[in-house]
Design goal:
This protein has one domain. It is 63% helix and 0% strand. It is elongated.
């Protein structure tokens, strides 16, 4: 979790200011869905994305 929050802060939220908690929440969800789960390779998953692992186990 520490690695996730570190990536979130440095890659996505750096310098961001939000007008509401809801806007911040939407942005964090976008990061998780569009960047973290789709694009980031994870060493503990054999350098695959979480989405690739999920699709492989569902098949």
């Amino acid at each position: 979790m520490e690695r996730f929050f570190g990536s979130l802060k440095s890659e996505w939220l750096a310098g961001q200011r939000y007008g509401s908690r809801q806007a911040a929440r939407r942005d964090v969800i976008e990061y998780i869905e569009m960047e973290y789960n789709s694009c980031r390779l994870h060493p503990t998953l054999g350098y695959q994305t979480p989405r690739e692992v999920e699709l492989a186990t569902a098949a």
